[in-house]
UniProtKB/TrEMBL annotation:
Name the UniProt record assigns to this protein: Amidohydrolase-related domain-containing protein
Signal sequence segment: none
Domain of life: Bacteria
Higher taxonomy: Bacteria, Bacillati, Bacillota, Bacilli, Bacillales
Family annotation (InterPro entries): Amidohydro-rel, Metal_Hydrolase
Domain Amidohydrolase-related: 45-252
Amino acid sequence: MAIDVNCLLGHWPFRKLYKNTLRDLQEVHAANGIQEGYVSSLNSIFYNDCFEGDEELHEMIKGSSYHHVQTIDPAMPGFSEDIDEGVRRFSSKALRIYPTFHGYSLQDPDMKLLCVKAKEHRLPLMITIRMEDERLNHIFAPSVLAMAELELFLQENPEIDVILLNIRYAELQALKETIQTRGNVYFDASGLKDQMFVVEKLLQDFDKEHLLYGSQHPLYCLKSTLLLVQLAEIDEESKKAILGDNGKTVFGGA
C-alpha cells in the first residue's frame, strides 16, 4: 500500500491551481497506485485563524479514506486548545507548522507547549521547510529556516516524532548526525529534486526507515516525485518501505 504523507487541499494565493479538489487528489492517487493520504489545508496557512481552514478541510475529506493533518500556528493565542479540539472533532493524525510563513522561531517559548501537546496526543510534528522553489517567491518572500535552528530543536525535543517536509539533500546532510542519532526524525521525498540519483545517495547515509513518500500535491507534480523512488536503483524492499511501510509505522497504521 502506497501512502502520500504530504498532500494538500485548498487555494494557493500566488498562482492558480487546477487540481486542488478532493476528487482531483483521489484521481491522481488512484492513477499512481496510492491508496492513502495525509492531507493539510492550504487555506489554513493564510487564514488569521488556522482552525477555520481545518474546519473546511474536515468537511472536504469526511467519509473518505484520507487523514486530517492539522495546521498550527503557535504564535497565535489558543493554539493549544485548537489541538485538543482538532483531535476531538477531526481525529487529527499529525500537526503541521509553517515557521517560515508565520514568522516565529523554533526556539520560541510557545514551541515548548506545542511539543507537550504533540507528545500528549501522540501526534507526529510536521515541520514545513518550504512550500515552493524560492525562485517563485516574487510576491511574498517567506523567511528561511536555518538548519542550525532546526538541529537545535531536534536535539532538544527527542521525545516527539518529527517529519521534515520539502527538505533538500544538502540540508539533510547538515542534519545527518542528529537524524542518525535519533530514530524518530523522518523526511519526505517532495524536496529531493535538486540532484541526480538523490535517493540512492541518501540511502548511503540514512537508514531507509527515515524516508517517507510525500508529493506536496498540488503545488508539485506528483508523478515526478513518485518516479524519484520508483526508478531509483535501490532494492525493492527499500522502495516498498519508502512508499508505504514507513508511513504506516510513523502513523501507527491510522
